[in-house]
UniProtKB/TrEMBL annotation:
Start and end residues of each DUF1214 domain: 344-452
Domain DUF1254: 75-205
UniProt-listed InterPro entries: DUF1214, DUF1214_C_sf, DUF1254, DUF1254_sf
Pfam families in the cross-refs: DUF1214 (PF06742), DUF1254 (PF06863)
Protein name: DUF1254 domain-containing protein
């Protein structure tokens, strides 16, 4: 049975349980605290991740680059001007098909204006997620979005909409994250052509709106030292601080239907550990154990997802997880900020067709039969990541192949073979070579932006990864 087929049925007289929760005057045991704290940590991991990013951005004075990663004041974005580089550690599983922007939303402070230039025929999509990592805007090529100004507001905002605003999107939470993506092909000509468009990709507080299209030279913004250099994604969730942040997170994200009892239970837990330091210590120890034994393994794609032919996997509720807590946390740990399925469909692979772990000590091929590359209205790519879900540096500086590459060689029968290996193939195959890390595990990842029906309904899935 799949999670999509499981629906909760309300119990008769369900309102009897609400809004009452645990009696905070009652003594609780160490074992109970550990039980509830561990589950609370798993449930709250994605929300804490987004909330902590807001805390990290709140003191940024202006849009800038923190090392290789964009950083901006709250309710603004900062834009890159080319593909993300291998040393970026703000978000794992980046791609080199788009130029990214990033910024945290704090809609309790002010609504934010989202500026959309005229992208013409170029693919683009603006992702904005709430505290739960669920998407709440529809802005992109697939929506037929027109150039102009769009307003994003918090759940309780009741102000006047200024003249000149095309549409308004209301977030279910005040805290969120914005990540524009604009397609760029892998040519010098397109790197130059995209710059005027990037310079008009902006988000800013409502009080700065004057009805005119603003421009910022993103190539001219300040660069300050970042936190690049580590192997793994920058950490945003820590057992030691999780329970201190949890009250604010519960206040920011109202319970989904059916979560009222969960919220009451969590507030009872908070009260118990606040009153007794030994129980707080037990809660932190339980959260630490969950981090190490339950959440950390979810970095590896083979440990979750809908299982597809040839050991590929996928999910179908990205950016709309609802009460599917397992998949929400798994996605947040392995590749946070996934687009909605109609915007991007993702396919994940850690294994070859025989079920062995992908490793750069071996050579592989991925062959798309004639007319069997991912069916998309936008673009597709096959990306290679190291075991930490970041790019594996190589001399070609090539980390993905797909629509953006204009020199891929198609065989006489119309098929397209991509060679995945550490050592260079023969010269006639170099254009189709996706370099792998030598003697190290890696992951393959198919993106299909603006997918066609065959991708969405499951009738198309990726071909096998075959060892040669």
């Amino acid at each position: 049975m799949t999670t999509s087929s499981i629906a909760a049925t309300l119990s008769p007289g369900w309102t009897r349980a609400l809004p009452a929760g645990p009696d905070t005057k009652v003594k609780v045991t160490d074992a109970w605290v550990r039980l509830i704290a561990g589950e609370a940590y798993f449930w709250g991991w994605p929300l804490t991740n987004i909330y902590t990013r807001r805390l990290n951005f709140q003191d940024v004075p202006e849009p800038m680059l923190a090392g290789p990663a964009p950083a901006a004041p709250l309710n603004q974005v900062s834009m890159l001007t080319d593909y993300v580089t291998p040393d970026q550690r703000l978000v794992c599983c980046p791609n080199q098909d788009v130029v990214y922007g990033a910024g945290s939303l704090a809609l309790d402070l002010t609504p934010a204006v989202v500026q959309v230039p005229d992208f013409g025929d170029r693919f683009w999509v603006y992702q904005m997620v709430d505290l739960r990592t669920d998407g709440f805007v529809q802005l992109g090529k697939m929506y037929g979005t027109t150039p102009g100004f769009y307003l994003v507001v918090g759940p309780d905002w009741a102000g006047e909409i200024p003249k000149g605003i095309t549409d308004v999107f209301r977030s279910p939470t005040n805290t969120g994250f914005a990540a524009p993506r604009i397609f760029q092909d892998d040519t010098a000509e397109d790197r130059a052509a995209i710059q005027p468009l990037l310079n008009q990709v902006m988000v800013y507080p409502l009080n700065q709106f004057d009805g005119t299209m603003k421009t910022r030279d993103w190539k001219g913004i300040k660069t300050v030292p970042g936190e690049e250099g580590g192997a793994s994604e920058k950490r945003f969730v820590f057992p030691e601080t999780f329970f201190d942040l949890l009250p604010s997170i519960l206040d920011d994200a109202p319970p989904l239907p059916g979560e009222e009892a969960r919220y009451a239970l969590l507030r009872g837990l908070i009260a118990a550990i606040k009153a007794d330091p030994t129980l707080k210590k037990a809660a932190v120890e339980a959260a630490t154990a969950v981090e190490e034994t339950v959440i950390l393994p979810l970095l590896q794609f083979r440990n979750y997802g809908q299982q597809l032919p040839h050991n590929w996997s996928t999910i179908s509720n990205e950016a709309a997880f609802g009460t599917d807590y397992f998949t929400r946390t798994a996605a947040a740990r392995s590749n946070i900020l996934v687009n909605a399925p109609n915007e991007t469909k993702y396919f994940y692979q850690d294994l070859d067709v025989s079920g062995d772990r992908l490793n750069g000590a071996k050579r592989y091929t991925v062959t798309f039969a004639k007319d069997e590359t991912p069916p998309v209205n936008g673009f597709w790519s096959l990306t290679l990541y190291n075991e930490h879900h970041f790019f594996a540096p190589n001399d070609l500086k090539r980390y993905s192949l797909g629509t953006k590459n204009k020199d891929l060689i198609v065989a006489s029968d119309g098929s397209l073979t991509i060679y995945v290996q550490a050592d260079p193939p023969s010269d006639d195959k170099r254009s189709n070579w996706l370099p792998a890390p030598k003697d190290a595990d890696f992951t393959l990842y198919v993106r299909s932006y603006w997918p066609k029906a065959a991708v969405l309904d499951g009738s198309w899935t990726p071909p096998p990864v075959e060892r040669t």
